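Dear H.,

Thanks for agreeing to be a second pair of eyes. The structure we're designing against is below in token form, covering all 275 positions.
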């Protein structure tokens, strides 16, 4: 049985949580320093979602964010994209303050424009960002790599859910950014398609060496994909879980003793909210 002493134990009374980067993946790519964010609820009162969050992700790391609903997972991604502005603290990519357009973003829903072909949906990247010029030949090459070359003239409604998510991921990839933010991209897929997409994503990520921050409610998915898992608690504390499994990952690893124990440990920590 593996030792899970790698969990970072944080006391309930801790006000500011300092997250120590221990990934060892190379140069730090993404950093959140003392970040807080609140929004106004229905009664116009400020509700704090994130409080003094510190987090760093190294170049080429695959890190998953997990936690109960309301712990700020999607909010963190929107802050990193620049769609939201933090109340305090700083967010850096490659040591520079983050701004809108600095990352590739893939939401749970594919958000493909239904009236545009797959080719035209992907060329939209160049229309939105004039600094990114993509040719049809480049799009065709990428469609070939993800197994969708024959669908360039198809409309989104003609594709399956998994195929649409491949196109959505490819659109985020074509933005040419080092950091990819994936917000529950496989949440709406059936179990078999989800496993296929997980394997496909890992193979492409390993080839391209992108830095990925991934949100999921699926604990098995988090354990299978990640180098590290960051668990967000309702009291704003965080824990780091190091995933000590070799790469490349294979689906048969899901049945190994280490993986089963890891997943059960993570589930227990969320269910009981121990600190």
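And this is the sequence the design step returned. I haven't edited it by hand at all.
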């Amino acid at each position: 049985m593996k030792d899970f002493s790698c969990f970072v134990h944080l006391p309930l009374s801790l006000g500011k949580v300092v997250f120590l980067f221990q990934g060892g993946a190379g140069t730090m790519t993404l950093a959140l320093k003392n970040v807080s964010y609140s929004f106004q609820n229905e009664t116009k009162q400020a509700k704090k979602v994130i409080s003094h969050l510190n987090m760093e992700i190294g170049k080429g790391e695959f890190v998953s964010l997990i936690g109960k609903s309301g712990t700020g997972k999607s909010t963190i991604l929107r802050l990193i994209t620049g769609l939201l502005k933090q109340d305090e603290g700083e967010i850096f990519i490659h040591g520079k303050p983050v701004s809108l357009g600095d990352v590739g973003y893939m939401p749970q829903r594919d958000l493909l424009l239904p009236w545009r072909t797959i080719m035209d949906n992907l060329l939209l990247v160049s229309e939105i960002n004039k600094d990114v010029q993509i040719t049809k030949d480049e799009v065709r090459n990428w469609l070939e790599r993800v197994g969708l070359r024959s669908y360039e003239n198809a409309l989104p409604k003609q594709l399956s859910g998994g195929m649409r998510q491949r196109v959505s991921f490819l659109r985020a990839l074509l933005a040419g950014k080092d950091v990819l933010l994936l917000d529950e991209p496989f949440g709406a897929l059936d179990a078999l398609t989800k496993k296929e997409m997980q394997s496909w994503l890992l193979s492409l990520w390993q080839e391209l060496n992108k830095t990925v921050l991934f949100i999921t409610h699926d604990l098995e998915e988090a354990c299978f994909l990640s180098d590290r898992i960051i668990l967000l608690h309702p009291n704003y504390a965080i824990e780091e879980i190091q995933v000590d499994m070799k790469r490349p990952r294979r689906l048969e690893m899901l049945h190994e003793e280490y993986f089963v124990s890891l997943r059960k440990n993570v589930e227990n920590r969320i269910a009981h909210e121990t600190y």
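Two observations from my side: Residues 1-26 have pLDDT under 50 and may be disordered. Strands lie at 28-40, 46-58, 62-67, 88-93, 96-97, 104-106, 179-183, 211-215, 228-232, 238-242.

Warmly,
E.
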